[in-house]
Write the structure tokens for this entry.
Amino acid sequence: MNHKQMLKVFAVPVSAAFIMGIGHQVVLADETEQPIDATETVDTTTEQSTTMDQSPIQQQDVNASATVAPQQTSNVWIGQQGYASLEEAVKNSNDGDTITLGEGRFTLYNSPNIQSYTKGKSLTFIGQGIDKTYWGIGATVPDPSKFGTEYNGDYSFDGAKTVTFKDMTLQSKAKIDYLGFIRIDDTIVEDCKINGKTFYWGYKTAIFKNTTFDDTDTDYAIWTYSSPIMTFDGCTFHGAGKYINVYTDYSTGKENRTVNINNCTFITQKHNKSALNINDSNMGNYKYYVNFTGHNVTEGIQPHTLTCSRLFGFSNNKNNSGRLVVKMDGVPIWQDAKMVSHSIDTANDKYTDGYKDDAFDYTYGEWVKQEDGSFKRHVKRVCQYCGYAEEYDEIKAAPVKPTEDSKSQETPASKAPTTVNTMSKVTPNKVNAVKATTNDVDTSVQTNIGLSILGVFAGIAGILGYRKKNK
């Protein structure tokens, strides 16, 4: 009997969803299990049209004499309950549920009516790791007629409250603008990897924790486009010189916008832009507030010639309109379109990078003797990164004049003049001074004891001599 004859035994046909769904398996009586390739991208439209109304999965009762026994292996769970597909799990989810994903590729893009099941909900999706679970964002091949609009974006969670992704890779492979998740209130991405450029995340807040941004070729990893408050905590960016584009026209002149950067790393093999490329020119009466905290590291990025920082800069002077306030560890370092100071120390860092790296060219004047015997010279230093110049006077103290009592104790070394540089003060070594004083005391005591002993012997000798003489 061949497979076609075997399938005719059953009154219930084998659904195509059993074969196409992620994690589904088909068992034939005379063959071993053949797991479906989990790396194949699921076409949710096709799956929706062919999947029978089964939620949760029900095992079908078959006659013991049957030769075909369809089985379904869950690859999506809510708690201990398994489901045939991601769509079925989302449809049966409640507000606040956590949905666990197995290995493979998942997406809700273009799933019919999926917004009706995600709207008003907060959902958490947890994968098996960035090298095992993959989530597709939007279309792999966008519609050219929609370029320049949001309509190539992903509407799967339109109207959702908070959506969280953990332990997976999120992929936006299309190399066009205005991609991402449309109209989620808040998004959280934790312990994930994001491939490709995205614009749309939380429309109230977007938080990225311990997430790696990768595979951006020559473009930005992310725009702050839709998120009034966007936070990056412990994230790493690998790119071709572009990282975060701080810009919006979506909410131009409507509200203040905040970007928080904490303990992040920006790595490139070819310099192009600063870690944050900022354009505040269209903010109207509102401002961007950028907060750097902790230890933020850059590799391969050159300091911006205006901000003197590798962390933030502008593509041109027009984009620096004075609607930006930057703080480092809570200390203002940039406002009113200029640096607050070229040399600022904060709790974890220094601003500027010229000051931090001590990258200055120095010009020194001649020493001039002052009325009090000290010497002064004029110093000018120019930052090698931004050209910032500052001038100051350096003071050298007058030599100390010896007193009459100290002349007899002078050595050639002690006669040398003392120089005091007002830029760096030397603290004397108090420990060595104490040791020297202690040694002097010990030597003096030993000398006095010796003289006393000699005096006693001399006195005894004198007495004995006197007695002998008068005998």
